[in-house]
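Why does this matter for the project? Reviewers at the last site visit asked to see concrete outputs rather than summary tables. In response, this paragraph embeds two records directly. Each consists of the residue sequence and, immediately after it, the corresponding structure tokens. Nothing has been edited or filtered.
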Amino acid sequence: MSALTLKGPYWVAVRQHRTVLWAVFALVGLGLVAVIALRVLSGDRDADRMTSPSSYYGWEALRLLIEYAGNTLLFLPLLAGAFVAGPMVARELESGTWRLALTQSTTAKAWLGSKVLVAAVVAVLGSVALIGVYRLGWSNVSGSSGLHWADRGPYEAAGPVLVGYCLLGVALGALVGQLVRRTLPAMAVTGLLTGLVLLVLGVLRWSLLPVVTTTAPYPGPGPRWSGYALMMDTGYLSSTGERLSEDACFNPTDPAAGCPADLNITARYADFHPASHHWPTQLIETSILLALAAAVLYAAFRLVRARHP
């Protein structure tokens, strides 16, 4: 039992921030209770809810909860990073209380390591638990408006990429907290940097895997794809193989006129990501985030070693 007992700076880190730990547990518990209650009320995924008002309202309430939860969980990495940067690192450097740890036979590297390890464990366990709760509700409403697997919010909240972003936030907090050394500015900078990574990778993620292209002869029915696919581009193909945009044949005076003969249109095309690209994209993006987190964390420990050998 004694091997499982926290000692030294790890015990201090948990003791100092136990309120936040209890808040994480409470958030997971409340979310789980709400999702289970609404799932029971909404009934089976394929049930005919028009014949049961309680089932319809339960399903709609669950859909709204999951929609807002997905958007809210986007801020979890920012909060994790800001908390590490501010209350856990910068505040102690700003007030000088970190020196007390050094008088207890603890090195500066061990002091920072205790902060990072405690924050990382809580971030991983908390985000994994929240992903599980989210997926429990999302599985009953996925595919509805705003809850497609590739939408911003559901994509991050329903897979391991959220864990990667949280760990990157922790690493950025450990580095920025040392560089800024003031609580509120460190929290703001870390939140901005984490949010910037979220935005950049959100733009680039659908370039990580090649799109699937399907074509269909023109004139005739357009190309077909699964309703769960993420559409990237559609348009026309000329006889030379040149791609033309979807509005190349649009005639404002006669919308039903079709494509002009001089364009030599022979087919229509569609570029899309099938639903099977969800998990490979998640794993690739998570790997990128873990590599970034490792690099930032390495820089953070190099900095603490350089300043406090």
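We now turn to the second protein, recorded in exactly the same manner.
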Amino acid sequence: MITRKPNDAATTAHERLFPGHVSALAMTDPELIEYFDNFAFDEVLRHTGDLDERTRLMTQLAAMIAVGAVAEFRVMLGAALTIGVTPVQAKEIVYQAVPYAGMARVFDFLHATNDVLIGRGVELPLEGHSTTNPDTRMEQGLVVQKRIVGEKAVDAMYANAPADEQHIQRFLSGNCFGDHYTRTGLDVPTRELLTFAMLAALGGADTQVKGHVMANLNVGNTRATLLAVLTGLLPFIGYPRTLNALAAVDAAAPTTKKDKA
């Protein structure tokens, strides 16, 4: 019987993220693990150079929350902590997911994160990172929302919403942006990359993906960075959702003739 195992580059990358770990699936499903690891931990990584390793791991964790992959999240969170993602950053990824994936889905990931952190000797709760309170969240949220989405776009959202939907617009400003985007622990450009990763992974959120491509560009992230995020997500969220998100990138940030050359 031929022994199947990942190539040297994939093995090295895997060992860096999961030192000393022996995959049970490598024993039961060696062919799949061989070509998955070669793809995810070698071939894909050659095309994510516009993303540093920690940010790549953080966007992958965000996507795993969106698809509901608790077991894989636990494993990848351990890898992220191993290569330098901090406990604060880990928590903020989970908190950032609440307005996009919903608390019903995030609940299990919050407990999983707590379990992993406690297992590594991290004392909880961590120091607070909220910068708003019930009296300031709406005003400060609207400021950051207009910075990210664009002042004209936000004003149009309020102007175009029927009277019986105005509360949803206020929720977006005060809760989504006021409670979450104003937090410290992660900067706004990183939060936007996480949001983009979550929306791409969710599926069925094409309008929101396109909106957050524009938001990423507004806060300084580039087409190249967004493509690197999608490339890193591909092995974990599959081709359909990746290609849908890629179409949103192409629509909002088209390549130029120079880029194509």
